[in-house]
Amino acid sequence: MGAIEDADAGTDDRAALRFGMLDVEQAPESPGVYAWYVKFHASVQDWETNPVDGRDASIEGFLSLLREYASFYEPLPISLRGSAPYGGRWDGTLELDHGVNHKQSQSSETGAERRENDRRERDREALENTISSQTGRRALAQLLGRATPVFSSPLYIGVAENLNERLQKHRSNYSRAMEWLRKSPNDMERLREDAKNFGQRAASRGIPMENLEAWVIDLKVLESSTSVNSLRESAQSAEWLLHRLFTPVLGRQ
Known about the structure:
Elements: E1 4-5, E2 16-20, E3 32-38, H1 44-47, E4 51-52, E5 55-56, H2 58-72, E6 78-83, E7 89-94, H3 111-130, H4 134-145, E8 156-160, H5 163-183, H6 188-194, H7 198-204, E9 212-218, H8 219-222, H9 228-246
Helix pairs in contact: 5-7, 6-7
């Protein structure tokens, strides 16, 4: 993919650059802030009508692509624990339900829950209507493919004294983790829970390397007259703030 300058990056258009994970060796050897994103990818074969036994097999195939893409952004389950009387303990896990994968349960609902589930079910039905046609699937694929990074949340935000070295380290970690999973595919869930870095976390979710891209802000270009120490301090402050604003799902746990 190589570097692509962002025409709307801000004061200095040269400061914001994009690199596919396959091309991170082209990143500048400068201090800066960076963020990883995953792009939605669908080919013509994914949205074109595919008649099989009187039905369009592309509908379920395209829905599977959407489910997979949604899974890349799912946060890890949250463990909850609390004390109960007489030495007892409450213990449970909360998992995100984004509404793409499953129909809503109708049992034991309150009025508010029923209204919310009805609304989500209408939204899901609208999605199913969209992907029921080749035209709808194509339009949705084109929109989602262009949504990164304009509308999408980053998977990971980091700061580096040398962007080139850091991004190549991420790629190396990813490649080693994927190689491990090829040899030990049953370790996917364990790696997802125990991953220590971005590369391992991305691999544990099965994100294809060609779908990963990094956007970087080269601080030497943005602030050419500022000392390296000041740039480093500013970058660390920016990373701290950006994490709290955007809560990247594959960031530091």
